[in-house]
Design a protein that fits this description.
The protein is α+β, with helices and mostly antiparallel strands. It has one domain. The protein has four helices and five strands; from the N terminus they run H-E-H-E-H-H-E-E-E. It has a five-stranded mixed beta sheet with strand order 1-2-5-4-3. The longest helix has 21 residues.
Length: about 110
């Protein structure tokens, strides 16, 4: 239906990370068992993960979210590119899909972020 020449603008994952719309949490995700890049949306970060002035609490919330998600994926039945769960009182969605180069990546955010 559309051709490449019809594309007006492309906003890449790398640009979203550079702009701060996505927060790259890959290093923490690797510690929790993830084997590919993981990012969280700014809205989820600000609303449920970040504890201003308390980086230890922020780290604990992030690691808790990632460990819970990893376990949820491990016990889920069937194949899906989307997992819905709750973390720190917020409804959360994790979406696995292709990154800028077609590689597997995961983005975690609030339902309104997708």
């Amino acid at each position: 239906m559309f051709e490449k020449k019809d594309l007006i603008h492309k906003y890449t994952r790398a640009q979203a990370i550079q702009d701060g719309e996505l927060i790259n949490v890959t290093d923490a995700a690797k510690l929790c068992g993830f084997a590919f890049p993981v990012a969280v949306t700014r809205a989820l970060w600000n609303g449920s993960i970040d504890v201003p002035g308390n980086p230890v609490a922020t780290d604990e919330r992030l690691i808790g979210l990632l460990l819970f998600l990893h376990r949820t994926i491990a016990v889920s039945e069937g194949e899906t590119d989307r997992i819905h769960f709750e973390s720190h009182g917020a409804k959360v969605v994790a979406v696995c899909g292709p990154g800028d180069q077609g590689e597997a990546v995961m983005t975690i955010g609030l339902p309104a972020d997708f």
